[in-house]
Amino acid sequence: MTTLTSSPPQPPPRQEAEPEFRPPRYRRPLGIGRDTAVHYAVLALLALFVLAPIVPTLIQSIRSVPLYESGGVFTLDGYRSLFTDAGFGQVVWNTLLFASLTTFLSLVIAVPMAVVVVRTRLPGGRLIAGAMQWPFFISSLILGFGWIIMYGPAGFVSTQFREVFGGVPWNLYSIPGMAVTEAVALAPIAYVFCANALRQSDASLESAAQVCGAGPLRILGQVIIPMLRPPMVYSSILVFSMSVETLSVPLLYGQPVGIDVFSTFLYRNGLQSVNPDYSVLGAASVVILCVTVSLVAVQAKLLKDAARFVSVRGKATRPRPLDLGWLKWVSVTVILCYVVFGALVPILGLVFRSFTLIFTPLRNPFDFLTTKNYETITAYDSYVQSIWNSITVAGVGAVLISVLAVFAVMVSRRSTFRYARTIEYLALIPQSVPGIIIGIGFFWAFAYAPFGLDSLLPGTLAALIVAFGLRALPSAFGSVAPSTLQIGTELDNAARVAGADWVTTFFRVLRALITPAFVGAMILTFVIMLKEYSPAVFLSSADNNVMGTTMLELWAQGSTGSVAALATIQIAITATFVALAGLLMRGKHHA
Description:
By secondary structure, the chain is mainly α. The protein has 26 helices and no strands.
């Protein structure tokens, strides 16, 4: 008999002890963490960046001598002289009339077109939606040149119209003429705001109106357009502010006939004056600054109750485009008139003018085709240098400002920094500071700068990068900020639980997620800085002009063909860059 015995129990296999998790440790020199150091560094940089042109302007307005001169006393004589000047009241009236008319025309153009393109069945709707934004990529200075060449008193269209009908019903050199041209340039801004709001809104209200028997026109008038009040308020105040500070169109149209607005008043009394009164110049700058800042405050007040316009809820419905019937062809015709006659004809006329010696319907322009205008540009080193200066300023500035905007967004939106809200305000304040005041302010700031910077910065490309970058900072911040709303905070929390500080969380987790938005901000900033020129009026030197200031000089000399050639080069650079950027960003809809 075999006896079965059980084997002795075996000990369980020995398991290797799991390594103990040790969170990373970071040095804290002087008891300050590196995340706190970065936060305060961003705050200090933005404060210096934004306040540098504003503080000297305020001081100069109450100082009897220029800032770069010793002595002097604090006085209000600048304000007294400004408001007792017999011509300043007319300047104020002209500015208000011009800005109000421009704002009204921009909304008249943009709001109906946004509603028709987004909410109705429109033939070629996608192409029309893209064409509505074309004028944004073109400087209002270039658009003004194109309008003068085509619709001015001696313009190609005006001359042809006068030959056929005996006269022209428009006068470009007037406040309405200025307003129409500026409205064509600024209408894409209002269009984008309204179109984006319509794309994001819920269409259930429209469906309910259809169930109740409302027709397309009644739905448009009583449901869709009233819901657009927030973007209409925001865009109207933004357009009004930009109209108050714009220099190009008032300078081209108003100066020849003696029509002064705020910007041309500063230009005439600051740059063109033999002995400028800097106290008066500072006082006028402060007045304009107060007006634009007040407009931003009014905007915030009006939009305080914007929550009652919210229509995007948890349960969304797919919008069903409205059918306007035969009115859709009227809509297409109106939109094409805006695009063709407002932007396409002036730009094509400007390009064609760059290849001709004489451009008039009284003589066949094809008999005068030439490349002499471009040869003139390439023959002078200063003109060629202005092209490279614009590209350099826009390229370097786009990278630097986009990086600053990313850090400003991350600190203000993704940190517990106690002054996070202040950083956001500092990043958005420059949108209410006119470009010509930025130029004047930095002119005084650089002249008063310590540590020898007063002799290093003025008249350099670095000064232009700083001034142009301040103008583009709010746009870069606004381009990056929405993308942070799409990134869940649980990613930040997971990194913090693992022991990562704010800096590590940003570089190891968030940086890759916001890279498309960063690239988009660089594209937008490059376009804005390439077409910018107003701060350079006071900051550039003979060796550091940009394309905008060079075109103004050539226009003042009567070299229309050279202006057209340089403008065409700028349009070509912008179009090439936007096209390449579009190819690189194709498919990245979250950018």
